[in-house]
Design brief:
With 405 residues, the protein is mainly alpha-helical. Helices cover 75% and strands 0% of the residues.
Amino acid sequence: MPTSENSLNQLKTHILRFSTESILLLLISIYFSTAVSSILSIIVILVWLVLGYYKHLPNLLKTHPPALWATLVYGYFLFAITYSHATIADISYTLTKYIELLFIPIFIPFLTTPKTHRLAWRVFVAASVLTLLASYLMAFGCFGEVLMLNASPKSRITHGILIAYFAFYCLHKTSRTNLTQKIVFGGLFILCWHNLFFIVNGRTGQFVLVVLVLLFVNQKLSLKQGGITVLTLVVFISLFYCYSEKAQRLHEGVINTQAFFQPIPTQTDSSMGLRYTFWRNSLKLIAERPWFGYGTGGFVEAYNQVKGISPVTKNPHNEFLRITVETGLIGLTVYLAFLLSYIKTAFRLPEPEKLLAQGLITCLVISSIFNSPIMDHTEGHWFALLFALTSSALPQHSSKLALPH
């Protein structure tokens, strides 16, 4: 028996050592590989189970409202199965896509020790820098001419969200660190800005970046500094829109919007035109079943009834509308409570996590208007892990939930 106990303790010690590596590897894999990040997510969950951290789940949900509300959102999706007429495949699709909500309470215990917390932010920086580097190498044709057209390791939308938030992080580093780090992170911010406006050209990333810069102005700068920054921003955007050939997608967005809102909409086959069509049809569905929606997985079948000549879609490119179509205004209220709980939690965090958390929730809300980031694999995993990383800075978590290294 003692031998068996010793073997068990040794195994647990090895798992404890591996726990840090697993969460850090997961973070960096999210930027580059869907398959690897899926495998590592499963490994992290298995480690969470083996170490018995599910025993701490009730306490975590009690002390960490965002984790509780994220769990309740997923719980409501499970409840909405009871009145759904969707196929098993469509129900499974929704449940699989939103499983990332449950990752938030699972990830938090891995990130609460000061050492792991610091390492995670360093890995975040390293992954972001590698993503920038890969983007520029692709743009310069180092990986072939085909990849030059979409110079990002992930999709243009995903890349824009990740790099926009990294730019926001760099701004905060320039305001808190020594001269050398100010220069390094200031340079990285400029690279992020150049990358999103002149290399990748994703409208979502550009819009998120501008909003995050304005948030930073409100958080850190004086009235005079903020005024100069906003004026510079307005001048740059005006010159970019009027004179840069890289502003073509912005021009297309404006033209498509004008065309769509004519008495007889045209150009609905454009990316913006399709979004407007998806949104309009989703609003029709919500009007038909406003309170409870069509049930989990019910979006596709319901959308087929109103889509007209528009393509079939599982994703209306708006997180709020998709959730409301399936779970109704009640389900949307639960999701909004999750977002609100994170905002309230952000104000309880020490700096810089407090300010970074405010940027993270802003990033999610803005990107959710034009896309469905929680539903998407990369963004969903990334937001879940960053939510856990920022929230794990809450002082009361450190002693009760951290892995015993």
